[in-house]
Design a protein that fits this description.
Blueprint lengths: L1 E4 L2 E4 L2 H13 L4 E7 L6 E3 L9 E5 L4 E10 L4 H20 L3 E12 L2 H4 L2
Parallel strand pairs: 6-7
Antiparallel strand pairs: 1-2, 3-4, 3-6, 5-6
Helix pairs in contact: 1-2
Length: 121
């Protein structure tokens, strides 16, 4: 995404926006992690370490960017509330850090994680 101003041009790569959006999403209460889906077999993978940004897709639109997030949530949380909170946080962080207008943010809950102690009888 290129931003033009009086002094010149600033280019912010989509990967940088994806990392910012991913960090913002991971800091939201109820978000366990980012996910990646294998289209061929439909298996969802929880991303670990520095790969979390692969769960974020950034698309440039006319006035800024659209963001798609794939997340895993904790068992028992209200998914709607987590998604709405995540949208607000991601929009705030990306716009504040880059100055780029964020259009649509779509959140996909691909997985629900269960604590190990819940699996024991």
């Amino acid at each position: 995404m290129k931003l033009l101003n009086k002094k010149g041009c600033i280019e912010v790569k989509d990967d940088v926006i994806a990392v910012l959006a991913g960090y913002a999403a991971l800091n939201c209460l109820g978000v366990k992690g980012m996910t990646s889906r294998n289209i061929g077999d439909g298996i969802v993978k929880l991303l670990k370490g520095d790969d979390f940004h692969h769960g974020v897709k950034v698309s440039v639109n006319k006035g800024g960017v659209d963001i798609e997030l794939h997340i895993a949530v904790d068992h028992g949380v209200n998914m709607r509330t987590v998604a709405l909170t995540t949208m607000d946080e991601v929009r705030y962080v990306v716009e504040k850090q880059t100055g780029i207008k964020v259009g649509n943010i779509n959140v996909f809950v691909d997985a629900i994680t269960v604590a190990d102690d819940m699996l024991e009888d």
